[in-house]
Write a structure and sequence with these properties.
about 40% helix, Rossmann fold, about 120 residues, alpha/beta
């Protein structure tokens, strides 16, 4: 059964690139440009979330979303990887409980290996 990947990213170009990459890798990919999908995880049932930090036109930024997910018993063990061009990603990761991060611009090989590592850790 294919693993499910939820990608929350507000840049449509990056979202499309990520969609193509992970469809090619055999994942079921669910895309969202706002924080809305993070409230529907029981229906979506992702195995991992790739989460942009800066989300325009969204109720919460990626740090707040991750903090909320990691504080709830039902989602605390769901792997969350931050995806951002922000500096200090390691510290941001620690502050919200994210499992890891991927810097933008990203290297496709590193991106896919990082996702594989965390998704198969479950």
């Amino acid at each position: 059964m294919a693993k499910r990947l939820l990608i929350i990213e507000d840049d449509p170009d990056i979202l499309e690139i990520l969609n193509l990459i992970f469809h090619h890798e055999g994942y079921v990919v669910i895309l969202s440009v706002t924080d809305e999908a993070s409230y529907h995880l029981p229906e979506i049932m992702p195995d991992l979330i790739l989460l942009d930090i800066r989300l325009q036109n969204s109720g919460q930024n990626g740090i707040a979303i991750c903090t909320r997910l990691k504080s709830q018993p039902a989602t605390k063990d769901l792997p969350v990887l931050l995806l951002s061009a922000e500096k200090g990603l390691a510290e941001l990761c620690r502050s919200c409980g994210a499992d890891g991060w991927i810097s933008k611009p990203f290297d496709i090989t590193r991106l896919t290996h990082t996702v594989q590592h965390f998704i198969h850790r479950i």
